[in-house]
């Protein structure tokens, strides 16, 4: 999945857990990452959009996590959730989240603020698992890997920040023997390390103590092959391994991406179809995926269990070095592309997982913009092609080229290998040596070198069309983005860091001047371009607007240049610089990577330089350059530091490419027609014998895909036993008390002197007609001013005093109750010394902000509309999930009103009303505040060290005393649902998102822990095999919301429609016919426990406990469910089949699809879908 995911695109095969937890509307207000994260994380299993605050990013959710996929780096624009977490040093500086959906930077503001990185619990009952999400909450967001690999899971968890590649800060090092490494000698622990290394064939290049991450790092070189191994040792139980190959493509056939998918489809030692899926089923991994960048391919795993960790390492090493795919043409066909013909009378079609994934990528305007930009900036090197694959070019790839690429680049001599954690460093070398010793040295390192792009002498302009719907005024749907390549050579570390600060100052928050001026200009709806991206060899800077009128294109360009000139001349305010500095310092101290393993974020940082033969230690050491930069700013002033950077790298830089994107309502249908014409000619060129052979080959491939692996092959994959699994669930310390009538939950956990808090208000008091304004109300609280401060001053004050504040709605069903759990949550964090400031600022945001700025509110509406349009195109499965939920339960209806198609329709109408009835809208915002802000129904959650918890209570007492002590009136029931029935939401796209759902509690089914095991098993087997492998969709998964009883199926980037629904309808029979041996059943149970016991940082634990409290999930129930999981039997599978039969018979289907596919479906099954046109 190269492009967007890794296996997930780049196969970031995320592991979706199941246990849905809450649905949350898209938080338009949620700035940046926070919203996202929350969303994603929340419910691993849930596919629907949810929204817990997670990872510090404002995520808005769409659960199918892998949805969450991060999108290929090519698109720097922030891709829809998927974020990849780039913690590079620079990354440490929080910055606008590139993955912001739709490229809009609205969330950026809080990125820093909400870097609360809590991976919030995907499932309340279980903790969230960080299986394949990437993200980044740092200032320098790197470009996402081109692709991640979506996982099959029963549910898909999302997570917070996207993993982004690390920032390469780097200056080149003179080459001596291998490379000169910056020396910061550390005391050798003993000669034993050298002795072991020597005996195993390794030599130590450098050994250093890395104080920034409390680690000892040793760089080894394997004498025989030249492979380099970084071994980082510390006390982190979440162990990480990764192997990275430099894989520069020469064309856009997508070889790196297809290979990244394919090597995980069986190997010499593990000769089954999908060892990767077997690991998903039965390991305790905390991360398991792979991803493709424009110039490298990464294969990381993580686990807290040492035995499990080494099992994962062994499977991955065998997969990349000895894959079956280079001898198996059918794997190439399945993962890459092939002609499909069921019988000679039908039309030929293209199929292939990567092919369909990339058709989806090429249907999204933001992705198209990112691809065009990258290729225009780098016309002469490997970045000028698409490593993910262009759907028009992928069918040109041959099996021989595919095999040759693996032979050429997947060699130890071309590898960088990473270990991190608390396991035995010597055991790492023993494991690695068993594989490396089978190879000789290779010329791959020379052949894979990345050559720099030479700088242009003149600017360039590119005009490209993108597929647009025919609704609305197309003249106002243009996009324009200015892009600069900043340097031909690696930059000095301090310059890299300064550029990261500059990027944050320009675009990092809603108050950042470049971002603010562009949005306030009224020339466009939302920001595009990701600012500075530096995860590749050469950094670039991009900025622009979407939703621009054709006549205003040049005005946008002029405004960008003029604003940058003014900033270079006048500099930034001291308040802005101080706020940025505090944000960076806070991020460094917190070191919060959410559900993303810390060791993996460090690996991505280090690889950002290491992959280019630069010093791999340098990105891990940020303290000295950071202090040096601070000293320069203090001595010379910020203007002397940043203005020369603006002038040199942007204003006076001729290597500038302006990309203009023009809407074309006929492009999608034209592309589809072109593909059909090509396939028509292919068929016409074939003889009857050729067609018969193709039909036979199609059937053979399908037979292979649907034939189970033999038991002996399955047993080859190492697995833990049930005896290795703890019988008790993970306990989160929680004390429940009361202050001035308000319930307070306290969690005494080590947080490195940071305090995290959530203030929860009851949304159920709100009038039904005000519900859809809640997301905009949340954004207004954070991005409007008070009587004494404008929003810029308020935003900077939050940045100077805290680690961030975010506000968002939370909604979930409650098992056993007809009434939903629906709340407004305010999240904040600060160093313990600034807790008083944190609560004072939360009070200011809640009570002092004035809803009087009509212009800014109008911007919020435009940004929300642009974001929803992007979600419809790129996260259609999330839209479909919300829509189905809205037809089946009240919590789903509430969530859909605040983040689904209904919300999109509301926003479109509201945009027209802002000028006509601003007074009424402003009054409604005030009414929402008056209704919600009350001690009645308020709940406060605090997570910190014991001493800091105690000290914070006096400030919390003061905060509570300032809350109105009113008694809000209940406004009646929200018992509303969207009319039932199958529905197709039509958009211009080349792929579909297909869902079906039903409420299994209505059949009388009583929740049993086995449901978690069964749901995960369905996703990892039946749906993975039939929807993804055989059907060609990028992903297929199911989700069981144990709170509402809704069991749902979803597909992602799916070439099919009715065929996928037929697969869903066959699930009950699949379970009835299922035969499971003890090993397979144990593996399914162990994998489920892995989801339940997901690794969490302290803030995530505190937030998870809060959600459990809100939803009534007790420790006693969790123990019961765990025991039920551990005792799951085949009988439970058979019984569950009867329950989910109701989805087939009484469920509702919702698809976000192309008009052509919907018309064909309704022709095949008359009136199957009610059609709603969205774009």
UniProtKB/TrEMBL annotation:
Query: Which Pfam families does the record match to this protein?
Result: M16C_assoc (PF08367), Peptidase_M16 (PF00675), Peptidase_M16_C (PF05193), PreP_C (PF22516)
Which family would the database say this protein is a member of?
A: Belongs to the peptidase M16 family. PreP subfamily.
Report the domain of life of the source organism: Eukaryota
* Location of this chain's protein in the cell: Mitochondrion
For this protein, what is any one GO molecular function term? Answer: metal ion binding
- Which keywords has UniProt assigned to this entry? Hydrolase, Metal-binding, Metalloprotease, Mitochondrion, Protease, Zinc
Q: What is this protein called?
A: Peptidase M16C associated domain-containing protein
- The answer to whether the entry has keyword Protease is yes
**Predominant location:** mitochondrion
Q: Does the UniProt entry include the keyword Nucleus?
A: no
Please give the biological process terms from Gene Ontology that the record holds. Answer: protein processing
Provide the Gene Ontology terms for cellular component.
chloroplast; mitochondrion
Give the PANTHER family listed for this entry.
PRESEQUENCE PROTEASE (PTHR43016), PRESEQUENCE PROTEASE, MITOCHONDRIAL (PTHR43016:SF13)
**Residues covered by the Peptidase M16C associated domain:** 661-910
């Amino acid at each position: 999945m190269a492009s967007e995911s890794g296996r997930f695109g780049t196969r970031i095969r995320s592991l979706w857990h199941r246990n849905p937890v809450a649905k949350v509307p898209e938080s338009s207000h949620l700035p940046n990452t926070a919203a996202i994260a929350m969303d994603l994380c929340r419910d691993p299993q849930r596919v629907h959009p949810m929204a817990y605050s997670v990872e510090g990013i404002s995520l808005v959710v769409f659960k199918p996590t892998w949805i969450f996929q991060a999108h290929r780096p090519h698109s720097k624009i922030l891709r829809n959730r998927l974020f990849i977490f780039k913690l590079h040093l620079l990354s440490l500086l929080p910055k606008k989240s590139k993955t912001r959906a739709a490229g809009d930077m609205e969330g950026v503001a809080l990125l820093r603020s909400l870097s609360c990185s809590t991976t919030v619990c995907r499932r309340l009952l279980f903790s969230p698992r960080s299986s394949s999400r990437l993200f980044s909450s740092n200032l320098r967001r790197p470009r996402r890997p081109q692709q991640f690999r979506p996982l099959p899971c029963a549910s898909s968890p999302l997570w917070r920040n996207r993993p982004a590649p690390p920032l390469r800060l780097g200056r080149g090092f003179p080459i001596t023997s291998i490379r000169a490494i910056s020396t910061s000698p550390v005391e050798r622990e003993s000669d034993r390390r050298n002795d072991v290394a020597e005996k195993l064939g390794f030599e130590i290049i450098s050994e250093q103590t890395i104080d920034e991450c409390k680690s000892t790092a040793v760089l080894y070189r394997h004498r025989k092959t030249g492979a380099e191994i970084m071994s980082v040792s510390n006390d982190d139980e979440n162990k990480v391994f990764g192997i990275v190959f430099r894989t520069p493509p020469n064309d856009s056939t997508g070889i790196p991406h297809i290979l990244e998918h394919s090597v995980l489809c069986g190997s010499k030692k593990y000769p089954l179809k999908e060892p990767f899926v077997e690991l998903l089923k039965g390991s305790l991994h905390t991360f398991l995926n792979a991803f493709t960048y424009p110039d490298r391919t990464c294969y990381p795993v993580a686990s807290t269990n040492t035995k499990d960790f080494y099992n994962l390492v062994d499977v991955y090493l065998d997969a990349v070095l000895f894959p079956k795919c280079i001898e198996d043409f059918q794997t190439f066909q399945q993962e890459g592309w092939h002609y499909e013909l069921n019988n000679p009378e039908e039309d030929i079609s293209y199929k292939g997982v990567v092919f369909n994934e990339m058709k989806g990528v090429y249907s999204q305007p933001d992705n198209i913009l990112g691809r065009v930009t990258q290729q225009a900036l780098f016309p002469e090197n490997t970045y000028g092609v698409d490593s993910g694959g262009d759907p028009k070019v992928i069918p040109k790839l041959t099996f021989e080229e595919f095999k040759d690429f693996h032979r050429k680049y997947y060699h130890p001599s071309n590898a960088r290998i990473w270990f991190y954690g608390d396991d035995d460093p010597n055991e790492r070398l023993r494991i690695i040596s068993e594989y490396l010793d089978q190879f000789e040295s290779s010329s791959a390192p020379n052949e894979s070198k990345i050559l720099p792009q030479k700088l242009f002498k003149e600017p360039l302009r590119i005009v490209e069309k993108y597929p647009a719907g025919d609704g609305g005024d197309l003249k106002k749907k243009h996009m324009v983005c200015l892009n600069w390549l900043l340097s031909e050579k690696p930059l000095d570390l301090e310059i890299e860091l300064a550029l990261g600060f500059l990027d944050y100052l320009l675009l990092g928050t809603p108050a950042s001047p470049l971002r603010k001026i562009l949005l306030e200009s009224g020339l466009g709806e939302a920001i595009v371009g990701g600012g500075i991206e530096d995860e590749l060899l050469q950094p670039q800077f991009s900025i622009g607007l979407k939703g621009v009128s054709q006549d205003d294109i040049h005005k946008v360009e002029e405004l960008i240049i003029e604003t940058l000139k003014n900033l270079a001349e006048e500099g930034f305010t001291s308040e802005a610089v101080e706020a940025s500095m505090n944000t960076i310092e806070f991020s460094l101290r917190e070191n919060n990577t959410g559900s993303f393993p810390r060791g993996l974020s460090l690996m991505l940082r280090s690889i950002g330089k290491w992959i280019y033969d630069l010093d791999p230690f340098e990105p891990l050491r940020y303290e000295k350059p950071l202090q040096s930069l601070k000293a320069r700013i203090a001595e010379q002033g910020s203007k002397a530091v940043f203005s020369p950077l603006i002038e040199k790298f942007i204003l006076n830089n001729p290597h500038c490419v302006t990309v203009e994107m023009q809407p074309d309502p006929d492009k999608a249908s034209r592309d589809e027609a072109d593909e059909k014409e090509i396939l028509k000619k292919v068929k016409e060129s074939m003889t009857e014998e050729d067609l018969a052979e193709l039909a036979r080959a199609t059937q053979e491939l399908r037979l292979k895909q649907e034939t189970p692996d033999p038991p002996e092959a399955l047993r080859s994959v190492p697995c833990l036993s049930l005896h290795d699994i703890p019988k008790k669930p993970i306990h989160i310390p929680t004390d429940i008390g009361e202050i001035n009538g308000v319930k307070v939950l306290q969690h005494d956990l080590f947080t490195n002197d940071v305090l995290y808090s959530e203030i929860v208000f009851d949304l159920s008091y709100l009038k039904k007609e005000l519900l859809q304004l809640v997301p905009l109300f949340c954004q207004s609280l954070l991005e409007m001013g008070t009587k004494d401060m404008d929003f810029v001053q308020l935003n900077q004050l939050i940045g100077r005093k805290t680690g961030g504040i975010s506000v968002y709605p939370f909604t979930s069903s409650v098992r056993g109750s007809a009434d939903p759990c629906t709340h407004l949550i305010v999240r904040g964090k600060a160093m313990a010394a600034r807790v008083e400031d944190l609560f004072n600022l939360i009070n200011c945001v809640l009570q002092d902000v004035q809803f009087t700025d009509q212009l800014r509110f109008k911007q919020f509406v435009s940004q929300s509309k642009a974001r929803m349009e992007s979600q419809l195109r790129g996260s259609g499965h999330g839209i479909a999930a919300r829509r189905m939920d809205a037809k089946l339960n009240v919590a789903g209806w509430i969530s859909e009103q605040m983040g689904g198609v209904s919300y999109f329709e509301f926003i479109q109408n509201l945009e027209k009303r802002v000028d006509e009835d601003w007074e009424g809208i402003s009054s409604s915002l005030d009414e929402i505040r008056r209704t919600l802000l009350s001690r009645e129904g308020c709940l406060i959650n605090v997570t910190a060290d014991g001493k800091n918890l105690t000290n914070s209570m006096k400030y919390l007492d003061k905060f509570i005393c300032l809350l109105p002590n009113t008694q809000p009136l209940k406004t009646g029931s929200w018992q509303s649902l969207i009319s039932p029935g199958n529905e197709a939401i039509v958009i211009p796209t080349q792929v579909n998102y297909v869902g079906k759902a039903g409420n299994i509690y209505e059949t009388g089914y009583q929740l049993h822990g086995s449901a978690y095991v069964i749901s995960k098993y369905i996703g990892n087997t039946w749906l993975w095999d039939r929807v993804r492998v055989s059907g060609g969709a990028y992903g297929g998964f199911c989700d069981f919301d144990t709170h509402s009883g809704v069991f749902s199926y979803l597909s992602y980037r799916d070439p099919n429609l009715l065929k996928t629904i037929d697969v869903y309808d066959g699930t009950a029979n699949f379970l009835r016919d299922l035969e499971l041996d003890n090993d397979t059943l144990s593996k399914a149970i162990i994998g489920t426990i892995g989801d339940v016991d997901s690794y969490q940082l302290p803030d995530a634990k505190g937030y998870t406990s809060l959600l459990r409290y809100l939803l009534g999930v007790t420790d006693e129930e969790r123990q019961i469910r765990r025991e039920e999981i551990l005792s799951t039997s085949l009988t439970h599978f058979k019984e569950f089949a009867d329950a989910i039969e109701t989805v087939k018979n009484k469920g509702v289907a919702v698809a976000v699809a192309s008009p052509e596919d919907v018309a064909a479906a309704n022709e095949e099954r008359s009136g199957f879908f009610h059609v709603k046109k969205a774009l």
